[in-house]
Amino acid sequence: MDEDLQIERKSENAMTLTGTVAIVTGSGQGLGLAYARELAAQGASVVINDVSQETADAAVKQITDAGGTASAVVAPVGSTETAKALVDHAYETYGRLDSLVTNAGILRDRTLWKMTDEDFDAVINVHLRGTFTCVREAATRWREAGTQGHIVCIGSPTGQRGNFGQTNYAAAKSGIVGMVRTWALELKKAGITVNAVIPVAATAMTKTVPFFQKAVEADERGEAMPEFFRKELGFGTADDVAGTIAFLASDAANGITGQVVGVGGDRLQLWSHPEAVTTVYREGGWSYDDLASGFSDAVGELQSVGEKFPQLPDELAPEPRS
């Protein structure tokens, strides 16, 4: 959809975020930019964040050309210094901060036996530590001022289910969800909501996965993705996710906190908090011999790991790579 038309269409309704200010980390391009554009379309002034000045400037221009308000902080997410710079920029430029979306991330995919310390630390620093430092800075400022706020942290299906070759990414994304649940408890009294979103959309990462080839190609041509992807897989565009981000960053979601929301294509999901699926007792406890001889009988069917995809229809199967 043409971005100018998108802003124009939304301006016909009352903008849900008019007068508010939002920070979106890692928002120079991709999913983060889609989130920033939607927040701006709903009336928020947006602080763009990226490691590239050129990319950040282009994102700001795209939003302002469409009638929105945006400015940028160019810095890598992870350190306390960057977190402070982002929050300071919001207050110094716009006089307030209402919502924070922690989206910044990188990938260093390798199998366990090939993953280096540097591969692991780099991903953990940006995703996990970057989420922690930014949320801590925003929440601290809100609590000191006695103001409410909305925090939206970006998770991943990998953090929920695991994925081959992504030890570091899975650890970071599952850790983010654990922090979200903890922060929801800690910040509830202050009126600060904290939620996680699990997006499923065409990104630079999914572009390389043959299973999604036909969907990504349709998106790149500006065509609607095949219904199978949007409905059966809940896989769509970045814009399909953005509305959920804006909703959770608004006062319309004041009663929602500590939740993990999945969104993609035509599908919306609410992920459960981990609960025991089987509970059994044995008088005197469970010895090695008890477990060796009766573990499967005691606990029943084991839990699956990894994402499970349905069979692709023949017409949507990926074409052989030359």
Automatic annotation (TrEMBL):
Domain Ketoreductase stretches: 20-203
Highest classification ranks of the organism: Bacteria, Bacillati, Actinomycetota, Actinomycetes, Micrococcales
GO molecular function: oxidoreductase activity
Entry's family note: Belongs to the short-chain dehydrogenases/reductases (SDR) family.
Protein name, per record: Dehydrogenase
Pfam family, one: adh_short_C2
Record's keyword terms, sorted: Oxidoreductase
Gene3D superfamilies: NAD(P)-binding Rossmann-like Domain (3.40.50.720)
InterPro entries per record: KR_dom (IPR057326), NAD(P)-bd_dom_sf (IPR036291), Peroxisomal_Beta-Oxidation (IPR051687), Sc_DH/Rdtase_CS (IPR020904), SDR_fam (IPR002347)
